[in-house]
Amino acid sequence: MNEYLQLFRAYLNFEKGLSSNTLEAYSRDLRKFFAYLHRRGIKQPTEIKRTDIVDYLGWMLDQGAAYSSMARSLSTLKTFFRFMIQDGYLEHNPTDNVESPRLRRRLPEVLSVKEVELLLDQPNPVTVIGIRDRAMLELMYATGLRVSELLSLQLDDINLTAGYVRCLGKGRKERIVPVNQTSTFWVERYIGRSRTQLVKNHLERTLFVNARGRKLSRQGFWKILNGYTRQAGINKSITPHTLRHSFATHLLKNGADLRAVQEMLGHADISTTQIYTHLTRTHLREVYQKSHPRA
């Protein structure tokens, strides 16, 4: 089975252009599935039947897996078996007619505008690290970039004069996102004052670097954000994605076009963006209740 896993990884990497994190997620799901098959005495893909897929999902449920984990695993298996048929390793897809568990989509945690302002005001604006942190948070909220996209930005990816950033999203798809004047101010200040003091190697082109002058990690960013959240006294479970959710929600609340928000977020499917309309509808109901004389 491992031979087919390596072929599948190569397909995802070179033909689909998926990130290393996504490749590892697919690999984990498949290794777990292969281990289950091995215990059942199944050693070749041609031996796998639809009942094996259904039994595996039932086994996951018995092990206490969440419906979201089962749905993700089934999605991985469907992608894998489509690849196997496409490349001629199999003739029949055992995942055909296997339905994914129905999920109740959870609304993402978002910050209010006041909470965002409070969070952005936390970094010390006179220290090297404080200026860097303020620039990162401002840019993330201004653009709605994923944390991986933010931390992968190179100096050449940001055009402050024209007011945009260029980033590579999922599937290595490039998109252009506008940048507001406030984030432009802080990024310019960071590049001019802080970055020159942090970078040790003049060949380093990564925009945001750590105290050693190297690319900042996702874990490092999370610790920075978590520290400022506690410092601001915000009692919400905030992750790097929270600023992205807040960016989208605040734009839609203020009348932004759904398609424009989809493009800025880099969503392939508009249904992913539509989750934020649930939040804005809640806001509209609140406004209606407060404003209409007969509400």
Question: What descriptive keywords fit this protein?
Answer:
58% helix; DNA polymerase, domain 1; 2 domains; 3-stranded antiparallel β-sheet; 4% strand; mainly alpha; 13 helices; 295 residues
Structure, explained:
This protein is mostly helical and 295 residues long. The chain folds into 2 domains: 85 residues, Tyrosine recombinase, N-terminal domain (DNA polymerase, domain 1); 177 residues, hpI Integrase, Chain A, CATH 1.10.443. The chain is 58% helix and 4% strand. The protein contains 13 helices and 3 strands; from the N terminus they run H-H-H-H-H-H-H-E-E-E-H-H-H-H-H-H. The chain has a 3-stranded antiparallel beta sheet with strand order 1-2-3. Helix 6 packs antiparallel against helix 8, helix 6 packs across helix 10 and helix 10 packs across helix 13. The radius of gyration is 23 Å and the shape is elongated.
